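Tutorial, part two.
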Amino acid sequence: MSSRIDKRILVVDDEEDVRDYLKAALEDAGFEVETACDGLEALEKVRAHPPDLISLDLVMPRHSGAKFYRELQKDKALHRIPVLIVTGHARDELGRADFEELTMSGPGVYLEKPVRPAAYVAAVRKLLGMEAEEAAQRPPEDLKQELEDALKKADRVALQRALDALKDRS
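Running the prediction step on this input gives:
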């Protein structure tokens, strides 16, 4: 497990196994996670304790992700919370209309199910503006080792051309 990150994520999905999967991915990355099974429960939780980011499924019974998002946008205190859409219905009849609406006029950031944990966590980190922060916190030894590993795997001819091009610029 990664070190603790002071960011709380609300995962909203009607499928318990998906909620658990996404929650585990985020907790393994060090995030604090809360879950909700539909848009109504999510609204209650967001109003009680606003999260730093919302991971939102679109197609859910009782109260869809699109309805939840529209209500969130009407609330001046909550409308700036970043939202990551995670859906398996981006291209089918169940979710296409909502998906198109939310990607055009809504958050525009989405992942299609099934998602890989690393891609999911990377998208969350990006929405929270944590990309540069992570690189700045990495020890120089880690960066040096990563560079050495990359150089060992790199094409020697391409590396030589790159080196020559850099020398010509100076």
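The chain has two domains: 8-135, 138-169. In part three we will examine how such features are distributed along the chain.
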